[in-house]
Amino acid sequence: QVQLVESGGGLVQPGGSLRLSCAGSGFTFSNYAMSWYRQAPGKERELVANISNTGGSTNYADSMKGRFTISRDNAKKTVYLQMSSLKPDDTAVYYCYFRSWLGNDYWGRGTQVTVSS
User: Fold this and answer.
1) pLDDT per position as a tens digit, 75-91
2) Fewer CB atoms < 10 Å away: N or C end of the chain?
């Protein structure tokens, strides 16, 4: 059974940092590119960043470039999102995602990030 479990969210002050983790199980983690998405209240889910299966290639949404870093540890079957210089607009539920070779989409349940003073 494929599972993606996010952790590391919480309440942080503007300008602060958080590191999110997503642990994968039930599939060959190292075979797949992984992504982080987020969804703010009243808004559509949007791509934050993605990373190739080896970690050698990464991409970011423009508003996250320079502030967020995606990485992965295939031995631990975990993908990370290091977030810094956080703004209130970064408040959202952050989701881990991948698409299998068969075209199935897999999402975690999400972790809440709240940026507020």
Assistant:
1) 999 999 999 999 999 99
2) N
